[in-house]
Amino acid sequence: MFERFQAFFQKLTADNQKKGFAPDDPRITVAALCMQVMEADGQIKASEKKRLRKLLKEQYALDGKQLDALMAAGLEAESSAVDYYRFTADLKRHLNTEQRLELIGILWDIVYADGERSEMEDHVIWRIADLLGVSSRERIQKRQEAAARVTDVQVAQDDAD
User: Which intervals hold domain Co-chaperone DjlA N-terminal (predicted)?
Assistant: First the structure.
């Protein structure tokens, strides 16, 4: 699963190897969308936050201060956004079709980080996917793949016990 994240984020930042975060940096946009998905059910669980931090740290090769700066920039962008259009319009300029699908898969992985999926999380991802031009069929496929990964991990943990 993390190989998939790594490939996605390497493509996303290939032309953007800055130490700081410009306001239009797609990494901020990705972090903000992830936070909006985490907040959709009314609570950010530690497992979701941990998953996002680990994802951003590993895929962007950020140290503690840089990771904190990206999380803070993503949170600020997320809290000042009126709707999803601001983020999705920005990402449509930076991502190709394959990368947009991969982003939807990543958002589903964050949803399933706590082992649960809420109606509000479904709705948020539906809106984001729609604005990114990801079809319902593709969105559902990505949801099913994320759910299967969670099941696989649970089975592996049960077998280890």
Answer: 28-144
